[in-house]
Write a structure and sequence with these properties.
24% of the residues lie in helices and 24% in strands. It contains 14 helices and 36 strands. Strand 2 and strand 3 form a beta hairpin. The protein binds adenosine monophosphate (AMP) and magnesium ion. Residues 472, 474, 476-477, 489, 491-494, 538-542, 586-589 line the site of adenosine monophosphate.
């Protein structure tokens, strides 16, 4: 139950009666009912304040209004104090303990004496300090020069960055101190609880299921100085009461949802950092240079490379889960490979080089095999049987291949010479312990897994696989398997793009199709931005009436129309939707695939954590002739036959059969060119894009 009807905030004080005229450093209170603040109440001493509070609680209970009552002093002390005084961690027992021992009148109270008395139980140097009286009090240090505190200086809440500037409960006086207020405030609260048994609950120690809740507040948490002409305490209680009263029930519930059994908490200080990260990408990350009509491909790529950052989050996985994942940090060998010297062949091992000519050696009993080391030392001049992979026994550093040996009468014979160390592998000759095995950003290959395993790595830090959502747009599209009416076509892009994403090592998320309908597209993008790191759309990316992808992104204020000097390609719409990057690809399947390979793939790699990956290209003689005008880069569907690059007969960007016929792309530079058969051209196999 968290809804409240009335809100009252109290700014407490530990001082004596402040006289008839309203002034600062007195007790001030303010009540808000139905969103309206009453005139702040000036309460000249604690006796008057207690009566006023009783009256308020009675009134609100009688009117069946739930009352939220805030006080600006700690409801508990740092850990361990309550138990040391009362034998219990329950702060409410400490309230009663203080209530039995404090004496309070408008002109005087015993707080310094009580603080000294408590200190004397703990050796007389703390936890309390500061004496506001003329006379000395045994055990109560005047300052912190000879101060010793057997308890923590601060409550956990006071250590939170937001609560910077809060005072400790141990300081009994001086500007801003709260120690006296706590000691002289808790007894009042204890009496009110008793007077209204079962009607008051205390936050955060008790469930707030009664008509009245006592809550610890700290106006300085959110408020600055008061406007001119207003008494700060009066203004603060009014402001806090209004702002808590205006909070949504859920928001207040969230603030009230803390866990601070013994020490209490300050309302509004968040208990832990919320689990949020700054947006990974800047809103203008897709902005192109102004005034340029058609951006060259290389400029567009350089821009993506510079502006995009890693968005995939790190995690730790077992090696068995690591195939294809991207390392977040360098990996060093836990163990050398090989871990110890061993034999590379089946044969006989002995010490040192063998001279030229026939050699005969006595055979020492026993043998060494992989995983079954020889136990003992082979005497000098003796040979021992060794099998491939076996650790070299003590006394052995050289091995003769068994095919080169005659064995008879417990001896071996072979022809020298043989170099010392022949047919053996040195410890660490492949990788030494501590060596860099693989660098951060590496996408793990099957061979990498062998290397990691051999060097003793069982778990690694990698990134979660980048989730890439794919969405087709267009009224004309129907799903394969459905009946296609006149004017309708089957959605070709989505199966292609989903498979491209998968092959390139990202996690495809199928968002289906949407018609050319802005509201539906908006809904789909909203849900996509919640379940994917990046969104690829196809269709609707130009500037026409039915180009809703670009229209929506423009509406969101984070859209750029990329007019890239590229064939095949139409304008791309790049933008952020709820912070999630959207690549609005052209609808034509050929352009959609080329733009994905040339632009989206390196961008996705960067966001996935593998850095900017350039496809590897090869220069090959052309098997075709082509004249090309200057001004834009061209990608032709191509394949290699007999060592020469062939291109597809038609360059039409709707010719899906050519995409399928091809095994890669021929890239022709931005300038003019006349390519004749036999001239060198750049061929990029599909495999170079990770396909
Ligand atoms: P748009 O970019 O929406 O103007 O579409 C350009 C061309 O690509 C049109 O002929 C569309 O019908 C076609 N197209 C758009 N999306 C797809 C798709 N998912 N599959 C096949 N063709 C498409
Ligand atoms: Mg369309």
């Amino acid at each position: 139950m968290t809804g409240f009807d009335s809100f009252a905030m109290v700014d407490w004080s530990s001082g004596n009666d402040t006289g008839p005229r309203p002034r600062k450093d007195a007790i001030w209170a303010c009540v808000v009912r139905k969103g309206e603040a009453e005139e702040p109440m000036y309460l000249r001493n604690r006796g008057i304040a207690e009566l006023w509070l009783r009256n308020l609680i009675e009134t609100e209970i009688a009117a069946s209004r739930r009352l939220f009552l805030g006080f600006d002093f700690p409801f508990g002390y740092p850990k361990g104090f309550a138990r040391a005084l009362t034998g219990s961690d329950d702060p409410l027992k400490l309230w009663d303990w203080f209530e039995r021992r404090t004496e309070d009148s408008p002109k005087a109270n015993n707080r310094f004496d009580l603080a000294g008395e408590i200190n004397r139980c703990f050796g007389g140097k703390g936890p309390f300090w500061f004496n506001g009286l003329q006379r000395d009090i045994e055990g109560l240090p005047k300052n912190k020069s000879d101060y010793q505190n057997p308890f923590p200086e601060r409550r956990a809440v006071e250590l939170m960055p937001e609560a910077k500037g809060s005072f400790s409960c141990w300081q009994m006086g001086g500007a801003g101190a709260v120690g006296g207020q706590v000691m002289m405030g808790l007894p009042v609260l204890a009496r009110l609880r008793r007077a209204f048994t079962g009607q008051i609950s205390v936050w955060p120690f008790e469930a707030l299921d009664t008509p009245v809740a006592f809550v610890e507040i700290w106006p300085s948490l959110t408020l600055g100085s008061a406007p001119d002409g207003r008494i700060k305490d009066a203004w603060q209680v009014e402001q806090v009461a209004l702002s808590v009263a205006r909070m949504q029930v859920e928001e207040l519930a969230q603030h009230l949802n803390v866990n601070a059994a013994e020490e209490g908490w300050i309302l509004g200080v968040s208990q832990s950092k919320p689990n949020i990260a700054p947006p990974p990408l800047r809103n203008d990350c897709f902005a192109l240079p102004a005034g340029v009509n058609w951006t060259p491909v290389d400029d567009a790529l350089a821009l993506l490379r510079e502006r995009l950052t890693v968005v995939a989050t790190p995690e730790r996985v077992a090696l068995s889960q690591a195939a294809g994942r991207i390392l977040t940090e360098d990996v060093l060998a836990n163990r050398s490979n090989p871990p110890q010297p061993n034999t590379a062949v089946d044969g006989y091992g002995f010490a040192g080089a063998a001279q030229e000519g026939a050699q005969v050696m006595p055979l020492y009993p026993g043998r060494a095999a992989a995983g079954m080391p020889f136990d003992g030392t082979v005497p000098d001049g003796h040979a021992v049987r060794v099998l491939t992979g076996a650790a070299l026994p003590d006394g052995v550093d050289t091995v003769i291949l068994e095919e080169d040996v005659t064995v008879q009468d417990n001896h071996i014979a072979f022809h020298g010479p043989l170099k010392q160390g022949a047919n053996t592998r040195r410890a660490g000759e492949d990788v030494a312990e501590g060596d860099l095995v693989l660098p951060a950003g590496r996408r793990l290959t099957p061979a990498d897994l062998a290397l990691l395993s051999a060097t003793g790595i069982a778990e690694i830090h990698v990134r979660k696989t980048l989730r890439v959502a794919v969405l087709s747009t267009g009224d004309e599209l129907v799903e394969p398997g459905e009946t296609a009416g006149p004017g309708q076509i089957f959605d070709a892009n989505r199966p292609m793009l989903l498979s491209l994403i998968d092959r390139m090592g990202f996690q495809p998320v199928d968002l289906g199709r949407v018609p050319d309908d802005r509201a539906e597209l908006r809904d789909r993008l909203n849900s996509a931005s919640g379940q994917a790191d990046v969104i690829l759309t196809s269709g609707g990316a130009s500037a026409g009436d039915e180009d809703h992808v670009s229209a929506l992104l423009r509406e969101a204020g984070a859209m750029q129309e990329w007019r890239i000097a590229l064939k095949p390609g139409r304008p791309l719409a790049l933008g952020l939707w709820n912070g999630t990057p959207v690549f609005g690809l052209p609808g034509n399947p050929v352009a959609a695939m080329v733009c994905t390979l040339i632009f989206a793939r390196p961008a996705l790699g960067l966001m996935a954590g593998e850095g900017w990956q350039e496809p590897r290209a090869f220069d090959l003689p052309a098997a075709f002739e082509k004249r090309k005008k200057p001004g834009r880069r061209e990608y032709l569907r191509a394949r290699v036959r007999d060592g020469r690059a062939e291109v597809f007969a038609s360059e039409g960007s709707g010719r899906i059969s050519g995409l399928s016929w091809a095994e890669g792309l021929v890239e022709i530079e931005d300038g003019a060119r006349h390519i004749k058969p036999g001239d060198m051209v750049r061929f990029i196999p599909y495999g170079s894009f990770g396909l």
